[in-house]
C-alpha cells in the first residue's frame, strides 16, 4: 500500500500548510503552489483527479473551500478519485490567522488518525470545538 500524503490547496492558508510541512516528519506534505503538476489556476477537478491517479501516494486533500462538497463536478471527481478530503467549517473564517494556526495544529493528530483509519472519505473540521465529522 502506498504511503499517506497530505496536499493543501490554494484555498487553505499557506502559512499553516507550511507550518504543518515543517512539523510533520512521518508523511509527505505539499502545498499546491509547490507542485509542478499544477498551475495556479488548475481546476479542482484536475487536482483531485491527478492526486487520485498518483500511485506513489495515498493523497489526502485539505481545503478551506467547503463548496467542493456541493459542486456536482468536484463531488464526482472526489468519488471517482478515491482520495480523502478534509475541509474547514464556517467557524474557521471568523478566526484570525493565529487562532487558525494553533487550532489546526491541535487538530492535526486527529486528522492524520482519521485519514489513516476511517473508511469515510469526506470530513469537516469544525472550528469551534475542533471536532472532525464525516460529511456526505
Automatic annotation (TrEMBL):
Domain of life here?
A: Bacteria
What Pfam families does the database record attribute to this sequence?
PIN_10
Query: Which InterPro entries has this protein been placed in?
Result: VapC45_PIN-like
Where is the VapC45 PIN like domain positioned along the sequence?
A: 6-89
Q: What is this protein called?
A: VapC45 PIN like domain-containing protein
- Source species of the chain: Limnoglobus roseus
Amino acid at each position: 500500500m502506498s504511503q499517506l500524503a497530505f496536499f493543501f490547496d490554494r484555498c487553505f492558508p499557506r502559512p499553516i500548510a507550511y507550518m504543518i510541512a515543517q512539523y510533520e516528519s512521518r508523511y509527505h506534505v505539499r502545498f499546491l503552489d509547490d507542485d509542478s503538476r499544477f498551475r495556479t489556476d488548475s481546476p479542482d477537478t484536475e487536482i483531485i483527479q491527478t492526486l487520485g491517479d498518483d500511485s506513489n501516494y495515498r493523497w489526502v486533500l485539505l481545503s478551506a473551500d467547503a463548496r467542493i462538497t456541493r459542486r456536482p463536478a468536484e463531488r464526482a471527481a472526489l468519488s471517482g478519485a478515491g482520495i480523502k478530503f478534509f475541509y474547514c467549517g464556517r467557524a474557521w473564517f471568523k478566526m484570525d490567522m493565529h487562532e487558525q494556526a494553533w487550532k489546526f495544529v491541535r487538530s492535526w493528530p486527529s486528522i492524520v488518525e482519521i485519514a489513516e483509519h476511517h473508511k469515510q472519505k469526506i470530513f469537516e473540521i469544525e472550528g469551534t470545538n475542533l471536532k472532525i465529522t464525516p460529511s456526505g
